[in-house]
Amino acid sequence: MRFELIDRVLERQPDRLVAVKSVTAAEEYLADHFPGFPVLPGVMMLEALVQAGRLLAEGQDEQAVSGRKGSSHRWVLTEAKNVRYGNMVRPGQSLWIEVTVRNRQADQLELAGLGKVEDQVAVQGRFTLCALANEPAGQDV
After folding, report:
1. Of 5, 37, 88, 111, whose CB is crowded by the most CB atoms within 10 A?
2. What is the pLDDT of residue 133?
3. Tell me, which fold does domain 8-133 have in CATH?
4. Edge-to-edge strand order for the sheet containing 120-133?
5. All structural domains of the chain with their residue ranges
6. Per-residue confidence (pLDDT) for residue 101, from 0 to 100
7. pLDDT of 1
8. pTM
9. Which pLDDT does position 65 carry in this prediction?
10. Spatial distance between the Cα atoms of 108 and 124, rounded to a whole number of angstroms
11. Residue 33 known to be catalytic
């Protein structure tokens, strides 16, 4: 199962991306987290930051391969540090996400992520994405 958590990219710069995740009551994982008091699970908040970071990395990857369309790498999470949670995100609210590049190497990006709901921090932390070469079609990784 794959969850696409980024609903919209609001702003994209070479080293920064701003996006939004709107939480609705129809989201499958809210039924069990928590019954009668649904909130976006912390791991899904972190995943939203990672997905925004991946979108930023893929844009940089396209630039690095001389304007070719499509990413030549799969960006995977290799490390998460100092992840802290604040406010809960409930159905009907939106998680405003900002990721910025802290350090860049050829196959690795260190990012800082911030997620806010109604101007209050819901999640923040640093994480590293590493580029893996895409496998030829038909091969499982």
Report:
1. 111
2. 81
3. Thiol Ester Dehydrase; Chain A (3.10.129)
4. 8-13, 16-22, 94-105, 108-117, 120-133, 73-85
5. 8-133
6. 98
7. 56
8. 0.87
9. 40
10. 20
11. yes
Angle at 123 between CA 118 and CA 128, to 5 degrees: 140
Pairing relation of β-strands 120-133 and 94-105? Answer: unpaired
DSSP character string of the chain: -------EEEEEETTEEEEEEE--TT-GGGTTSSTTS----HHHHHHHHHHHHHHHHHHHHHHHTTT-SS-SEEEEEEEEEEEEE-S---TT-EEEEEEEEEEEETTEEEEEEEEEETTEEEEEEEEEEEEEEPPPTT---
Q: Which of 33, 74, 90, 126 is catalytic?
A: 33
Query: Are 112 and 126 within 8 A, CB to CB?
Result: yes
Q: What is the largest CA-CA distance in the chain?
A: 51
pLDDT (tens digit, 0 to 9) for every residue of the chain, 141 residues total? 578 999 999 999 999 999 999 999 999 888 888 888 999 999 999 999 999 999 999 987 655 443 334 556 799 999 999 999 999 999 999 999 999 999 999 899 999 999 999 999 999 999 999 999 876 555 554
Enter the tokens of residue 32. 């069990």
- Give the residue carrying structure tokens 């609705």: 24
